[in-house]
What we know:
Layout: H1 11-19, H2 21-65, H3 68-75, H4 77-101, H5 106-128, H6 139-199, H7 203-230, E1 234-242, E2 248-256, H8 259-264, H9 268-271, H10 288-298, E3 302-310, E4 313-324, E5 327-334, H11 336-372, E6 376-384, E7 390-398, H12 403-406, H13 410-413, H14 418-421, H15 423-427, H16 430-439, E8 444-452, E9 455-466, E10 469-476, H17 478-508, E11 510-516, E12 521-524, H18 526-532, H19 543-547, H20 555-568, E13 574-579, E14 585-597, E15 600-609, H21 611-663, H22 669-697, E16 706-709, H23 710-720, H24 722-728, E17 731-734, E18 739-742, H25 744-760, E19 769-778, E20 792-800, H26 832-842, E21 846-851, E22 857-864
Amino acid sequence: MDFKRVYTSSKTYIILLVVGLALLLFMASMSYRQIMRMQQAADMVAHTLKVYNILSDLSAHYTQADSEVFREKLVDKDSFETVLRAYKSEGANIIESLRVSTQESVSQQSRINSLKVLLNTLYDQLYLLPASGFEGNTEDALQYRHAQAGKINATLYQIRSINKSMLSEEEYLMELRQAKYLSHKHLAPATSLVLAFFALFITFVSFLRIYRNKLRIRQSEGFLKSVLATTDNIVNYYEPIYDAEGSIIDFKIVFANACNRDYLGLDPDEVMDKPLSEVHALYKMNGELDALIACCQDQTKTNFSQQVDVNDEAMWFHVFVTPLATGALVTSRNTTADEKSKKEQFALKQRLEDQNLKLLDNRALLSNIFKSISHVVMHFLSIRDENGEIVDFEILFVNDRIYPITGDNPDDLKNKLVSKAFPTISETVIFNHLVNAIERNKAVEYLVPYTKNGREHWFQCTAIKLGDGVTVTSREVTEEKQKEAQLLSLNDELAVQNSILSDAERIAKIGCFLWYIEKGKVEISDNFYSILGYDVKEFNMTLEKYREFIHYEDLSLYDDRLKEIMETNVHEEHMYRIITKTGEIKHLRTNSQDVIKNGERIMVGVVQDVTENIETEEILRVKNRELLRSNAELESFNRVSSHDLQEPLRKIRLFISRIQDKEGDNFSSTGTEYFNKVKNSVERMQALIDNLLSYSQIDSSQEDFEQLDLNEVLEKVEEDLTARINEVDAKINSDKLPVIEGLVFQMEQLFTNLISNAIKYRDAAETPIIHITYEKIEATKIVEPFIKTHKYYHKLSFIDNGIGFDPEYAEKIFEVFQRLHQKNEYSGTGIGLAICKKIIENHNGYIYAVGRESKGATFVVYLPD
């Protein structure tokens, strides 16, 4: 600190000596007493800072015990003794330094005694932390360390409390010494005046005394600078900067110690004499400036916490502001380690809580597993004699599955000896199995018979070492033992089945083969010989031998296919022709796959004589061509007939209209009735021909398919049927419908027919309501029996509340000219639903109906996505 700017320098006395002996004597006397008081104050400040440093060392010392890294070193057997010995030695040095530095304070000495006892307790607790009985990461070890850590944290909490009390007393002493200094400062002028006359007689002696005191001040200043240089705290001195109105607007940094460089990266020489507002690492805008101003104006101490970011790393300081002379002495203690320790402690606590929760979950899961499995699970702890040999076991755990077998309660068996609870184990070879599993650290499996209610049960047991015990898992294999006996009888039946398989191959005209690729060996079934026209085992089959049977026209295709299989290992069904021993040409279909047996690649396959199928398919193709030609002629005839019938119908309708206009008034009631029946029959014949023509015009061509929005189709149909809808006050509700690939006019006809049907077959007592629902459904989830060529389908359901129909006629209603009602009950031609079915089939979809009499009907349509 630049004391020349804070205190009166010795140059003042030399100047006063030149100016006048009288003034010099006065000032010399005054300066002498002032310097003496300042020296005492400086000594006391240095002493207090020294105590602060020792307390800081104490804080760092006990904080280290809370460090996870330090505890990991203690857990390490290799470094445990060395680390703990050095740690105890460090604590003893700190206590001794505190005892010497505070020997004048009885209360501090008492606290030091308590600290010493608590530190010894802490060392004992740290010594017990890596107890050998709880090594590793077992559940007991984790619980023990967690409990020991709790004791250590409680001891650390008491040490922190005493440390804070000692710091508070030192701060109180600092306040008393400051007050004493101020009182001496006010008494100095009066005392100097009284002693001025006496100083005239001892001028020379006083001058020498002042000079010697100046040297002592320099020594004290050097000592104080040394203390400030070695302290772990940032110590700065600020003098206020006033504006024109006398208000403090800033502070000038008069002194800054080297800790500014260590903590904040600020060079003390560069920041001194600068305004505080220009040094951003020291100047914060969250109330610190107001605290400094209040300290200088009110001459009161204050303290606050401050966080500073240095090189993107957060640091915490606890700042003490003390008024000193005309400025403020600012001491910043680095509390970063404490803050980090708190965070680490909190994080450790959180991790422990999480681990405890996981442990509880794992225990609950394990408990549920033991309850749900059908196996009996037991864990035995070894009991050894003085020679270390296992003589018995203690039962530590048995799950609930033991009760149905032996009738024992698992809780009653815990902590019992195996020799008492299960004497058969100790008396049989089972005991040796358990011992071998532990001593050899190898799982042991064995069978155990158990007789219950006169019936013999068998259990497959597995013994696995766990610690110095063994976990035994037992499952009942009685049924497996019985099946093993059954297997022997099944082997006898296998020969019979092989004979049946040979007959099945012969009937299905199938042959089997095995080709050992690496050995070049080929085995074929008996019926394969028959397909080739040979007796069984008449020759030895090889790949080269089989090529001789391949038809010469198919030989290159056969070789290429065989080469592709060998190179790509991709097997696909293929066909070729062979020439048998008798010269007969046969068509064979073959398929195969690779298997690996004992590290050897083997091709396994079947061949089927499909000669008759090929001939049948050829006949079928001819028939199909004839059917296509017949259908084309039929459609042509249908269209021609439909058009040709239009002409006489138009003439009949024309003459009916003329007769009605001219002679209608002369008809009798019977004649009028007959005439109306003729007229209705003609109109029905006209509708029938129109529908028949529409039906014949629906083909399966998809060349004109386009993207169409079914919502727009529904709007168009509702517009066309407005009159009929309004006539019966029908309600049509619809989900949002999809966009599909299709023909617009056919979709319009589909919607028109289905909605018209719902209106036509309405219940006279109810308002017709038609619901059109939609959902997109995966093909695999559709249970209706039709060929599904797409992954997804649009499902449209037309649901009405009409008269419905008998479920017996659900398929009949889609046939041409099929009606469920008399024509005098409901009008129609019986072609409408047949047209709907043909439209849906043309769009590669499916339609079906569901209904019940008087319960309404539902028409479900599937259209591909």
